[in-house]
Amino acid sequence: DAKTTQPTSMDCAEGRAANLPCNHSTISGNEYVYWYRQIHSQGPQYIIHGLKNNETNEMASLIITEDRKSSTLILPHATLRDTAVYYCIVRVGSGGSNYKLTFGKGTLLTVNP
Amino acid sequence: GAGVSQSPSNKVTEKGKDVELRCDPISGHTALYWYRQRLGQGLEFLIYFQGNSAPDKSGLPSDRFSAERTGESVSTLTIQRTQQEDSAVYLCASSTTGTSNYGYTFGSGTRLTVV
Q1: Across the beta sheet with B19-24, what order do the strands follow?
Q2: What's the gap between Cα A67 and its chain centre?
């Protein structure tokens, strides 16, 4: 799997948008970008994934650059409960043989009141 | 059940003892994974089960670690002769297939402390 680079930590004010960047300059054409988050003392939680088009769901939006070398996870209105470590992972999607998710250290997002 | 269930949630054991950790995956999920997370660290892959195929044990750190799964049901992770460096949160996840596009569902983990 391609390596990802994320900032170690970020802060965001409650109610504001949180924009979490991720660099994945060595991503292959068949690799998807996945985002998970881990709230303290809980297991990781799936947020969203995408290949090349921007994606949106009830939790977040994912913006992938045209060259696919970087992406941004957007939490449109951050709340205190969004304080967590956010992991950006690239992995071959369905049909591939690489089934493991390889987690780095992620970004600790702290939402401040 | 509605989610992945792990038990116990916390386990304190003496060095040298054996421990057994349990994972109940989501019903119908054929793929099951074990990960380990040491304090302040990322997740380390341990082992993967997919249906009746041979498991991928490539992440198990030593022969003191083993895991079993019967069919598509419960899995147990066993650590023999525990050492202090085994202290960590052990996380289990399941998914509909090994290459699902729709993410894994993790349990809340078992926090193992070896004293």
Answers
A1: B5-7, B19-24, B75-79, B65-69
A2: 17
Lowest model confidence (mean pLDDT) among A8-17, A90-99, B52-61: A90-99
Interface test with B, best of A100, A102, A108 (most B CBs within 10 A): A100
Query: Any idea which residue has 């989501």 for tokens?
Result: B26
CA of A40 vs chain B CAs: smallest distance (Å): 10
A104–chain B Cβ distance below 8 A for any pair:
yes
A21-66 pLDDT, tens digit each: 999 999 988 888 999 999 988 899 999 999 998 999 999 999 999 9
Taking the CA of residue B33 and the nearest CA in chain A, the distance in Å comes to 9
The neighbour count for residue A1, using CB atoms within 10 Å, is 16
